[in-house]
Amino acid sequence: MKKVKHLFLLFALLFSSLLAPVGALTDNSTGASSATSTSQSSVAAIKKRGKIVIGTAADYPPYEFSVKENGVSKRVGIDIDLGKQLAKDLGVKAEFKVMNFDSLLVALETHKVDVVIAAMSPTPERAKSVDFSQVYYGDNQDIVINKADQAKYKTLKDFDGRVIGAQNGSEQYDLAKQQMKGAKLKRLDRVNNLIIALQSHKVDGVVMDSTRAKAFVANNDQLKAINPHFKTSGQQGTAVAVAKDSPGLVAATNQTIAKFKKNNTFDRVYIPRAGKYMSQRARQNTVWNYFVLGVGNTLLITIFAVFFGFLLGLLFALLRWSKNLLFHSIAVAYIEFIRGTPMMVQVMFVYFGIGELIQDIPAVVAGIIAISINSGAYVAEIIRSGVQAVNHGQTEAARSLGMSKQETMRYIIMPQALRNIWPALGNEFITLLKDSSIVSVIGVAELMYQTQLIQSATYKGALPLFIAMVIYFILTFTLTRLLNYGKRKLNRS
Mapped to the 3 state alphabet, what secondary structure does 357-394 carry? Predict the structure, then answer.
């Protein structure tokens, strides 16, 4: 019920933000934004909320990754342990938000998270947007290769003409781009996908920090890590990212890190613990439990998106028919703008942009809103085409019988239009079910997101994808049968 309330409230706010002038957004991003950042990211504000929200990627062992324990998926690793200890030192609970690595700083800047603990290097470019703690674990940059190729590669020059993989948005990608100009770069959102690509010979090497490289090599005797001696500048290692102008939180984070460095907690406790979890994960065989939550959220998103998308489509189809110039213009602007922008951009805008207005908006709710709004634009045009397909003589006959315009539309035009547009609506609903996979970019644990977790947990590339394809087919085939049943019912009426 709480999610439903969020949906109704946020739909109204979304439309007002979509129509807001760009200048207003610019104003909000200056002094007001800085003040908001300071207040929301202060230690006092976090203690008042009783929790600290930590952004992470959960695909980067031994720093942060997912395992299954007693049938339950959980986040583990060096960064997870550090986040929990930071929360304990602040006297609050730790809440982890998992998303793609290249979305983490956006989430921090838009106040979706309080800190980012995700094996992030404190580069000068990133420091322009966020503040960093002191480095909590130092690292070199290695390249992981297949052990069978170890005689081929020793230096960066040896990779000329070869394909090199790196995580999107990472320091490793920037280093490879700057210092391996003779190589072909391939970037993916998840490092586990890069390792799968390496093992299947889609790439010849994967650039990553030495700690991560050692963890992979220790758990896979077919891999080898080499140090090609990248030239680096600035602080080397990983640090906690904090929103700008949050000195209190930076100081609190540094206190926790200093305590761990003094007690050698990272090398003595955290890395061995992460290695134990990695070994445990490598022994896991079953993948079915991961799919259960994914299918549930996929169906939840689809059902709500179909419902709200149809309502929005009907509303804006009526507004477009309106003789009121304002209503007509709003409908045209909505339909053309939504159909002219990618759904992925809309999903990220709702989550990160509208999240500026409403804090703590759940990712699944943001996904439902974005997909519903996208669908509404297409449904509006489907309904309009269906109404236009009804012979105009039907309207004239109804009006000659004394029926009002509203009665004519309700009892004469719409029933016939619905019969005409049913196949097109069915195609739109099936598309919604498949497009729900896009919300995985903001960390919604739908089917595609869970599939990626399975790949991360098992290092199997093709099998989880094949199973996901089969599940999507079963869902779409079932929906098609239901739509065909509805079509037969309409034809009989």
Answer: CCCCCCHHHHHHHHHHHHHHHHHHHHHHHHHHHCCHHH
